[in-house]
Amino acid sequence: TNYIEIAHSASQNYTGGQSVSFWIYRTGMIPAGGDQNHILSKGAQLFSGQNIWAGDSNNYIYYHYINGNYNTSNDCSTAQNSFSSNNWLHYVVTNDLSNIKLYLNGSLVQTCPISNPLTTLDGTNQGPMNFGKGRGHFGGEKGFQGRIDDIGTWNRVLTQQEITNLYNADTTLNPFCSTDTFEAIPNINISSNDAILYNNEIY
Q1: 63-91 burial string, b = 16+ CB within 10 Å, else e?
Q2: Residue 180 burial (CB < 10 Å; 0-12/13-18/19+)?
Q3: Cβ 39 vs Cβ 96: under 8 Å
Q4: N or C: which end of the chain has fewer CB within 10 A?
Q5: What is the largest distance, in Å, between two alpha-carbon atoms of the chain?
Q6: What's the CA gap between 162 and 57, in Å, rounded?
Q7: pLDDT band at 118 (very low <50, low <70, confident <90, very high)
Q8: What is the predicted pLDDT for the residue at 6?
C-alpha cells in the first residue's frame, strides 16, 4: 500500500479539539480479516493513538482513539453503506472533546457524545501521522484501496460554514492564519514506500 507519513509536531497536539478533512475515492475493499482500511492513523505505541478507517465489508467511515486502554475508546461512525465506491466524497470529522461529529459532502450525518471523557486525544501526541496506512497500535492493519485527496487537520473545531466552504472548494478558508494550525499534503514527507502523488492525491 502506498502511503504518506508526517513527522509529529506540536501542531498535532489536539488538546483543544480536532478537525480532519479529506476526499476519498474508493476503488475496492482490501479483503476481510479486520475491518480497518486506514485513511488516517497516528500514534507510536500499543493502546495509544487514533485512526480513521473505511469498513471493508460495508461502506462506512469510523473515527476512533484510545489513550492507554482499548476498552475505554471514544469513537463514532457513519451508518453502514453510507457511501458508494468509485465516487469522490468529502468527509470532515470534528471533535470538540464533548461530541464527535461526522460530515459527508458538507452535511452533518452523525453526532456521537464522548462516552469516555477520561480518554483524551493526548494518546495522539506522539509518533508520526500516516495517511493510507495504519501505524502505532494500528500498525498491523490494512491500508486504503483508492485515492485520498485534499487532506487537512486542525487543532480546533471547524464551523459548519467552514466545512461547507471546504466542500465547495472555497479558498477563503485560510488554514495558515495565525489562529489556526493546519497540516496538509504539500507540507509532508513521502515515506520510504514512495507514495505516488498527482494533484495531491495518493495512488
Answers
A1: bbbbbeeeeebbbbbbeeebbeeeeebbb
A2: middle
A3: no
A4: C
A5: 44
A6: 32
A7: confident
A8: 83
Name residues whose C-beta falls within 8 Å of residue 157's C-beta, 6 or more positions apart in sequence. Answer: 17, 18, 19, 94, 95, 96
Cell of 179: 489562529
| Residue 61 burial (CB count, 10 A) | 24
Distance CA 198, CA 149 (A): 9
167-177 pLDDT, tens per residue? 997 444 444 32
Determine how many CB atoms are found less than 10 A away from the CB of residue 173: 20
Identify any residues that bridge with 93 across adjacent strands, giving them in sequence order: 20, 102
For residues 109 and 103, give the distance between their C-alpha atoms in angstroms, rounded to a whole number.
5
DSSP secondary structure, 80-116, as one string: TT-S-SSSEEEEEEEE-SSEEEEEETTEEEEEEE-S-
